[in-house]
Every structure is written in C-alpha cells, then in structure tokens.
Amino acid sequence: MFDKILIANRGEIALRVIRAAREMGIQSVAVHSTADSDAMHVRMADESVCIGPPSGTDSYLSIPAIIAACEVTGAQAIHPGYGFLSENANFVQIVEDHDLSFIGPTAEHIRVMGDKITAKDTMKKLGVPCVPGSDGGVPTLAEAKKLGEEMGYPVIVKATAGGGGRGMKVADTAADMEHAFMTARSEGKAAFGNDEVYIEKYLTTPRHIEIQVFGDGKGQAVHLGERDCSLQRRHQKVFEEAPGPSITAEERARIGKTCADAVARINYAGAGTIEFLYENGEFYFIEMNTRLQVEHPVTEAIFGVDLVREQIRVAAGLPMSFTQDELQINGHAIEVRINAEKLPEFSPRPGTISQFHAPGGLGVRMDSALYDGYKIPPYYDSLIAKLIVHGRDRPSALARLNRALGELIVDGVDTTVPLFHELLQEPDIHTGAYNIHWLEHWLETNLQD
C-alpha cells in the first residue's frame, strides 16, 4: 500500500480523496494555485505545495509542476479527482514514466474511451448496445446530409473529442444540417483541437442512465447499478439519483452484467462510468468516463462502499474488496449540485461566503470545501457543494432532501439552491416522470426574472 499520495485537484473532490486516504492511514499532499492558498483541501492535507498562479492552465493543468510536487514530497501515487487531468492519457503516461502510480485506468484505456468514435466501435465489439449512427467520422457536409436522410431526422452531430455539452448540435430537419455540422466542427476545434464529427440518431424523449463499473485490471469487474442523471441543463447534470426510478431489476441486471463483462474483457482498472440514453426499454451507449464521477456519492450511499478507497486499493495492486454477489442495493439516494450562480441565467457569481451552515441528521451528506469567510475564486468551475441524501425509498429520500435544503445556509453569494426548492414542488419530480429535455422545458416557463 502507498504511504503518501498526491491529489492533483482542488475543492470538494480533493477533500473527498484526503478523507479516504486518512482513513486508510495514508498521508496526503495537496497541490494548489496561489488563488487557493487558503482553500480547505490545503488546510486538511498533511502537506501542500503551491504549483502556480491562479489560471488552471498554469497550475492544476501543469504536468511538470505536479510531477515536481511528487518528487519534492515523496508522494508515490497521484489521484486526479475529476476534471483537470483526470482523463489525460499523456499525463498518465508521464506519471508512469516517472515511476509513479496513477490512481485510475491505463493511458491506453483513457485514450480509447476519450475518442468517441473509437469508444463506440470498441463498445460495439464488446457487446454493448449503441445508438444508431455513422461508422466513424463524417468529413463533409454532403455526406452528413446524406446520412441524415438515410437515418431519418432528427439527428445529432457530435465532435469526436467533445464533452460537457460542447461540440453537440441537433439537426431537426435537413434544413438544419449545415448549421449543426459547421457549428459542431468549429466548437470541437476550438475546445478540443479536433474538428472531426460523427452523427447519431437523435432520440426524442430519452433518459440519461449511467452504469457504475469497477475493475481490478486483471480481468475481474463488477457493476454497482445505475444512476439516473436525466435532469440536465445544456447537457450539464443538475440532479442525480440511484437507483433510476424507471429501471427494473431485470433491466439493471442485464445492462449491468453487459457493462461489467465488457470492462473485464479489456482488463480495465478502477472506477469507470458507462453512459447511456434509455428510451422504450432500450439502452444506447453514448460514452464512457474513465474516472470518478461528480455523482459517485449516490452509488456509495445505496451500496455502502467507498469508491475512492477502492480506487486506491486497486492502484496499489490489491484485489477489490467486494464481489458482485455482495453488492446489494439499500434504499434510494439523491444528489443535487449547488453552484455559485445567479438565477435564472445561471451566470457564475464568485465572492466571499459570509455564513455557511451544512445540513445534518440521518442520511444527509454534504461534500463541500466552503467555510465562513472563504473567498470563491473566479478562475474555476462554479460548483461549490454537493448535497446528498439517502432514504429507505425514493419518497423518503425526496422528503429528506427537502428538509436538508431548508437547513442549508450559504450567505454572501448567489447559489442555485432556489432551483431545487422549486423543483421539489413539481409532481413530475415526485413521480420520476422526466427525461433529458424536461428541465430545460421547465426552465423556459418557470424560472424567470
């Protein structure tokens, strides 16, 4: 087992890893920019190293600075959290070249799954169901129009290297194709340095269902059920829950086994999430995230496992501490993402926290790096907290979420908390009758100035 690990991240996810390491008797090293000198993850780690100025490019994305921090502190392994360098295959290769351990999958697995066309082709070969679409990239507008006619509209044009909702454009009719094709290409080029796009059939009322998998890198893998992440705004998840309210036990077992078998066959190591669109009882693969997810706590809640602890164990060469038969769902869990943003435009609002009080009580977990007087810097993502609740069933989890939101105090900045108060008044939320388009339609008519 490692004696010391470095967390190449910030905020609540850095705290999450520090806590797991401390419970395992492992020392932790926090890295930080000059803007994060007073951040909670810096205060809680056993050691800290400043790796650059406020800009993420010059600090949390600086591979030389992170490797140097390992060398000066004697850290043996790096946990990337999520975002930043967590899915950078080049970073993983450099880590390994410096005789350090990366707490996550191999560079090759990250590389394969990071290219959506290659990922889709790989998953097809592994028996995972995929959305009907083009066989590889679509180089010209003429070919895109031809495919649109053959597949039938609507279709969605996606950047091969896209993510976070960027490089994705829907063409409802043939007249929309030129704009969708050119925009997806330009966004892909600007955001990811790659203007290749592909085309898929656009499902009209799907849910976003993702399967949590975990492999030991030696041909053994399990699944930890599904999460429903259908409540989204501009392809960004807002509200996540497990298990999915629309998924039957039979469907869970079927798609879960398919995913676990797939990652076992490629000797995948660590945590991974296979994401699907789900419509009319069918699952369609869209992408695989080769890292820990923001919403991993809801899975931890219903299975009673620590996924970060498991990541560290497997990276150290130890076997998984559970088998598929031992993983049994207990109750229901929900997570809401709380951002420092002003409604209804969802514009970032960094500032100073004048008062912070986290809710508590049975079945309530608050993952956050906030404290009274903390200055939220303007340089990073606006996520400031994740509120997770766990109940014996979905109605009790929703009731607990309502209660916990009422206890939460975040003063000094605008947040998205009022959105969740409003959503909990909606009958569709309580019945689970929503899809990936529901929230945006609701926002158009309900959340106005």
Question: How would you portray this structure in words?
Answer:
With 449 residues, the chain is an alpha+beta fold. Helices cover 34% and strands 27% of the residues. It has helices spanning 11-23, 40-44, 63-73, 89-97, 107-114, 116-125, 141-151, 177-192, 249-265, 296-303, 307-315, 394-407, 417-423, 427-431, 438-446, and strands spanning 4-7, 27-33, 47-52, 77-79, 101-102, 155-163, 166-171, 197-201, 207-216, 221-233, 236-242, 269-279, 282-289, 332-339, 341-342, 347-348, 355-357, 364-368, 383-391, 409-411. The strands form 5 sheets. The protein has an 8-stranded antiparallel sheet with strand order 13-12-9-10-11-14-19-18, sandwiched between helices. The chain starts with a strand and ends with a helix. The model has no long low-confidence stretch (mean pLDDT 95).
